[in-house]
Structure prediction request, 492 residues.
Amino acid sequence: MELLLIFISAAIVNNFVLAYFLGICPFIGVSNKVSSAFSMGMATTFVMTMAAIVTWMIYYLILQPFRLQFLQTVAFILVIASLVQFVEMFIKKASRPLYRALGIFLPLITTNCAIMGLALFSITREYNFYQAVVFAVGAGAGFTLAICLMAGIREDLELAEVPKPFRGAPITLIVAGIMALAFSGFAGMI
Amino acid sequence: MSPDLLIAVAAMGGLGLFFAAALAVADKKLRVEENPMIGRVHEVLPGANCGACGYAGCYDFAVQVVEGNAACNGCPVGGQDTADEVAAVVGIESVKSVRMVARVLCRGGRKEARNKETAYIGPGGCSVQNIVSGGNKVCIYGCLGGGDCVAACAFNAIYMNGNGLPAVVDEFCTGCGMCAAACPRNIIEIHPIDRDVFVFCKNHDGPKEANVLCDASCIGCGICARKSGGAISMTDNLAIIDYEKLDPETIPFDKCRSGAIGYLPGRAPAREAEMEESREVDLVKKIRPFSTTGRSIRKEPG
Prediction:
């Protein structure tokens, strides 16, 4: 039950994009088409889950025993960057179609603040291992939900007559703001 | 130095070393061998990733060329130069390729085409107009004038001329076909650049309707087909050219009273060019009174 709550909290109530404003760059950058937005969401979910597992282990097996918690930011950056590199190599070797599908998204995610935020959140909230994993999957699902909704709206926006100064990124940011307002309706439910 | 600092340095250094080593090993173990030729072919390709070759992008095309599944001249954007370079890299003989360009097969601009009595007011794109009400013009086959083709062109090779029709700049056109795909009326086609004669109309209506709704329409009279020796066939009131058999000498261009079949502007031989002019005078005399009095369709709405 608690795991379910963590999942829903991460996916909807405290959506990473719309409540914490993490991972805005891919949210704006890769939300032109629903299909590519979904790929990005899946790739992010995958990396988030991997990163949550590895950073949890680094923190509780290395940093905490040696009282090095103050190094967590640096350590996590190091871990996430290496991890994504490794995963990319592995996928390239293991599955060419999957590598093609994820394409440029995978290396892009390395520098995504949502991943870093996730790692830091699961430490400050003192989640145990399973909770951290569920939290990561939930956050990834929430990211996918947000970016796919955004892509759907933007596909329709293509047909709308948007005033010239608002075309492109500005109208997208306005839409993102309205979506965030809508999602704030979930605030306080959990 | 305090032991805390030493531990911190050791831990972070260790972590860094560990990951560096892991990545180095992974790079060796998981390396995917690629034919170095693919990279070299990819370098000589234009890199627009437009997909005109029929593959997912320039890289994919390079892979197919190296594996022998695609011809070296498969890239219509790069043209002959690229075909030669690709052939040189792969080590095969180059194939001659004719440059392809887009051709707009509708001459029903603002001057020629009749408008509906009700004006279309809404988003300007052709795709929208086509779905909503078919735009302003009566002709349901012709150019909508919304400029979807212009927006689709990645090479700035197509623009809307003063008459509300798209015009192709041959020098910039790469024949990628994005404009043809964007046109909801399918009036843009990709043709070899040395092709001069076209039927500049897609209207399948019968003679009466076709005559009224546009001054530049093919009314399906079939005069061009009768004299063409089988090169032109009539399908649903529209002349279709079979370029294999076509001999422009035999086509009575001056008999086509709307000028639907004819040479590209500036491509006609001297004799034809004269006729073109004289026919335009005829057009004004002959067709205008007929089309404006014959039906109640007005030129401007409102």
Notes: Chain A touches chain B at residues 58, 62-63, 66-68, 71, 74-75, 78-79, 82, 85-86, 89-90, 92-93, 159-161 (CB under 8 Å). Chain A has nine helices and no strands. The two ends of chain A are 12 Å apart (CA to CA). Residues 34-63 of chain A form the longest helix (30 residues).
